[in-house]
Specification:
Layout: H1 7-33, H2 35-50, H3 60-66, H4 70-74, H5 80-83, H6 91-112, H7 114-138, H8 144-152, H9 159-169, H10 175-196, H11 199-218, H12 232-255, H13 277-286, H14 291-302, H15 305-326, H16 330-355, H17 373-392, H18 405-430, H19 441-451, H20 470-496, H21 504-516, E1 532-535, E2 542-548, E3 551-554, H22 565-578, E4 582-588, H23 590-598, E5 602-613, H24 625-636, E6 640-644, H25 651-667, H26 680-683, E7 689-694, E8 700-711, E9 714-725, H27 733-747, E10 752-759, H28 778-798, H29 800-807, E11 813-821, H30 827-838, H31 844-856
Parallel strand pairs: 3-4, 9-10
Antiparallel strand pairs: 1-2, 2-3, 4-11, 5-10, 5-11, 6-7, 7-8, 8-9
Length: 857
């Protein structure tokens, strides 16, 4: 016998060894870092196997002994709040609980510690069960049906305490994940409680609420304190979560035969059909108002996979719209608002039909066989709440699609309708013997619109045709499913189309001129979204600006030949004035300030640019101690600096950058800023370079972005823009990245690095500049003092002065940045425009919170 020592065998052996080592490592990790989770996981499976509960769940007697329920409490089984968490309802429940323990409980235990997880889990489980049972008794007052189901129900499962512990742990998490976990968990648990409505769903909801309340006493609050506002991006995500939850709820009710919640209006619609088509027609021939006739027609329409899917399609469509909301699409907002209005109208129709005697008391509208005012009005509340939320957050959804996107979408949907109509009519005529009545072309055309409507909304309309064989059933039941599915896909694709700009041709022209010409260190910001462009008559220069409250506010100097700057400034000023706007050049250099001063304009220094000249960078001496320490610590920790292109970065890297950025912005405790401060949208640019600090495990600890600075078509410098650091990562990541960028770019022959400006912050002693200026400029000196006071006031919130102090570690050259304007009397309007440019989405409420935060610090 020979031994196969081929490379394939060796590779298989090596792969098996690696898998074995990884499995052993996972086991060691679990025992060492999550012992409680491992013990509970093993206990659950051992008890399930010992009691024969793994497949079909606990027996009736065992469930009465260990399950949470009113009967168990009444029999004195006081241990049920804890024992109910150690079993599951069936094999799927055991698998689901195991996934939750491994994916949620184990990381929580590692973060919180075993003792705190035990306290959080036990507290939320016990209180969740007690509150859930209390609710079961209380709810009978206004919903006897749901209250009865809760009263006789029994609950087992570990999901309640895991959800409660997660909510408790969120108390000291970073702002981003705290908000997402809380909103997502509450949206899910509320949806399950209201639509599915089982006792376990109610207990899970109360456990989540208890965890939310007691978390601060178990793990403490986040050291970052209260927040003023999240980012616009995060606001869109949270609204999308709520809308998605409102769409998932009806799906849960429709697909769950045990759904008993107050919003489970579809629970009776998906049952077996006790009659054939012929029997139903015979019943209806005798009496069209016979309840058996109406019920038979309803159940014939709703039986089968096709009608079930068609009834779910509106909810699936709303799920697609929620993705558009996540992307900030205006069309998604409009469509979702329309969908909620339709649901409100249907809810009102439900009420009218039941209580204004539009039909008899045996109506099956919405499938509710025991109608009352409460169960009719409750479904009205969900779309009403979502509609109010959408209206209140409409400012988040301002992203427009490229021109003609929705014109093409409309044409595609019309074409889809035409094709499906031809297929339905043609197929119906070919399969005409498959219907209970002989169809005609006119009859099929008239019936086609009903095939697109979910059958739950057709209960008051007698069907013209009913299918009796496979071919006709496919046409009858699946035409609407195909329509909704393709329409949802077309809408989803429309959300993927790139966002339109005000004038794509002008933006591309400006970018080309900048790359081929000369600009200031901030000139690349003129290519950002939100700018409009003015081009000089000779086409040699351009000015990027935005009109806010009647002020034409520019971004930096005019871009073009330096000897044409004066002509560009004068030309733009005339253009703005002719349109009734107030011209204001913002964040301009000394060269532009000199020109505007000669024109009789006023000016203020609004920032201090820090420039690091390259050529002999060494970071030696005592002055660079912090920088050298960062470089040395990074080397010892295995952290390196890597250049990346953000649009082409690996998905794993981009996901980390997005998470770090959202966390950083949210934790600043302020509305998201823009204008000359770039974010994630601005780094998605082929010309922008990114430098990241990564360790050996490819964990990103910090990220910076660098904007190119052109002179006569050649990159001579780079400007720092985007700076984000992982809150719990390598602390001196920014010092390390900036120093690494300087060393790397110096090797490439770059002349300088601009560390950009710090708004409302200047170096000490710079204010003395105004003391020796002539009397004509004393107004500017006074305004400088006002800005200095404003900078000190906003420092606790925005930290601009701290940012300038941080950049001083690199011993840069300081270059003042100015704001110049023709009329000093326009300063209030200009100040308003600058504020709105930096904070485009701030609301009045956020403004008051900002003031309270400043005054309270």
């Amino acid at each position: 016998m020979t031994i196969d020592s081929s490379p394939g065998t060796e590779e298989s052996t090596s792969r098996a060894r690696v898998v074995t080592q990884k499995a052993a490592g996972i086991i060691r990790f679990g025992i060492r870092d999550a012992p409680l989770t491992v013990v509970l996981l093993l206990t659950m499976w051992i008890l399930g196997a010992a009691t024969g509960s793994l497949v079909h769940g606990p027996s009736r007697d065992l469930e009465h002994t260990i399950g949470a329920g009113m009967g168990s409490i009444q029999h004195g089984h006081v241990w049920i709040p804890l024992s109910s968490a150690l079993w599951a309802g069936n094999l799927l429940g055991y698998i689901g609980a195991s996934v939750l323990l491994i994916a949620v409980a184990a990381p929580l235990e590692r973060r919180m510690g075993t003792i705190k997880l035990a306290i959080a889990g036990a507290s939320t489980q016990i209180l969740g069960v007690l509150l859930g049972l209390g609710w079961a008794s209380f709810v009978k007052v206004f919903d006897s049906n749901w209250g009865f189901r809760l009263h006789v129900g029994s609950a087992v499962g570990a999901s309640a305490w895991i959800v409660g512990a997660a909510m408790a742990a969120s108390s000291n998490m970073g702002t981003l994940w705290r908000r997402r976990i809380r909103v997502g968990t509450l949206a899910l648990t509320i949806t399950l409680a209201l639509f599915s409505g089982q006792l376990q769903d109610v207990i899970r909801f109360f456990a989540a609420v208890v965890g939310l309340v007691i978390g601060q006493w178990i793990v403490g609050r986040s050291a970052r304190g209260e927040r003023i506002a999240g980012t616009q991006r995060e606001g869109r995500v949270l609204v999308a979560i709520v809308v998605a939850a409102s769409a998932i709820g009806p799906m849960i009710a429709a697909l769950s035969p045990q759904a008993v919640g107050p919003l489970a209006v579809l629970r009776d619609l998906f049952r077996g059909v006790p009659w054939t088509v012929a029997e139903v027609r015979e019943l209806c021939a005798e009496s069209a108002s016979d309840p058996d006739c109406r019920r038979g027609l309803l159940e014939l329409r709703l039986s089968g996979i096709g009608p079930t899917l068609l009834s779910l399609m509106p909810s699936i469509f709303v799920l697609v719209l929620s993705d558009g909301l996540r992307r900030g699409r205006r069309f998604a907002w409009i469509a979702t608002v329309c969908a909620q209005v339709v649901l409100l109208v249907l809810s009102i129709g439900n009420f009218v039909i039941r209580f204004v005697d539009a039909v008899d008391s045996d109506s099956l509208f919405y499938g509710i066989s025991d109608p009352n005012v409460y169960r009719t009005l409750v479904p009205f509340l969900t779309p009403l709440f979502v509609l109010i939320l959408l209206i209140a957050t409409r400012r988040y959804f301002d992203v427009a699609a490229p021109a003609k996107t929705y014109r093409r979408l409309g044409a595609a949907i019309v074409a889809l309708l035409a094709v499906l109509a031809v297929i339905y009519v043609g197929g119906g005529m070919l399969a005409r013997h498959g219907f209970d009545r002989e169809p005609t072309v006119t009859m099929l055309l008239a019936d086609f619109p009903q095939r697109l409507v979910p059958p739950v909304y057709l209960q008051l309309i007698d069907p013209r045709l009913l299918p009796v064989d496979i071919e006709s059933t496919l046409l009858f039941e699946w035409t609407g499913v195909v329509f909704w599915g393709v329409a949802a896909l077309l809408v989803f694709v429309s959300f993927l189309k790139p966002v339109k700009t005000a004038d794509p041709t002008a933006a591309e022209r400006a970018r080309s001129m900048l790359i081929a010409g000369t600009g200031s260190p901030l000139s690349w910001m003129t290519t950002w979204k939100g700018n409009t462009y003015w081009f000089s008559a000779d086409g040699s220069s351009y000015v990027a600006y935005r009109v806010i409250a009647g002020v034409a506010l520019t971004t930096g100097d005019p871009v073009g030949p330096p000897d044409r700057m004066r002509a560009a400034i004068e030309g733009f000023a005339e253009f703005a004035s002719s349109n009734g706007w107030i011209p204001c050049f913002y964040s301009v250099t000394d060269d532009a300030r000199t020109i505007t001063d000669s024109m009789g304009w006023s000016g203020l220094q609004v920032a201090e640019e820090t420039v690091l000249d390259l050529g002999q960078v060494a970071f030696t001496g005592k002055r660079f101690q912090d920088v050298r320490t960062a470089l040395n610590r990074a080397k010892k920790s295995g952290i390196t600096a890597e250049w990346i292109s953000f649009p082409h970065a690996p998905l794993a890297i981009k996901d980390q950058i997005v998470a770090i950025s959202e966390e950083w912005v949210a934790d600043k405790g302020m509305p998201e800023m823009g204008f000359t401060l770039g974010g994630l949208d601005e780094v998605e640019d082929e010309q922008v370079r990114g430098l990241i600090a990564v360790d050996e495990d490819r964990t990103v600890h910090g990220v910076t972005s660098w904007l190119p600075v052109y002179r006569d078509g050649k990159v001579v410098g780079w400007t720092l823009d985007f700076m984000r650091r992982r809150s719990e990562g390598f602390r001196p990541a920014m010092e390390f990245l900036i120093a690494s960028a300087a060393l790397k770019l110096e090797e490439e022959g770059v002349e300088f690095l601009s560390l950009s400006g710090a708004p409302l912050a200047t170096i000490a002693g710079d204010s003395e500049r105004n003391a020796n200026e002539p009397e004509a400029t004393t107004f500017s000196a006074m305004m400088d003092s006002v800005l200095d006071l404003l900078g000190r006031t906003l420092e606790p919130v925005y930290g601009f002065r701290s940012l300038l102090a941080f950049k001083s570690k690199f011993q840069p050259r300081y270059v003042p940045m100015h704001m110049t304007f023709a009329d000093p009397a326009a300063l209030p309007s200009i100040g308003n425009a600058v504020g709105r440019a930096y904070l485009p989405t701030v609301t009045i409420g956020q403004g008051f919170k900002l003031v309270r935060t400043i005054l309270g610090r």
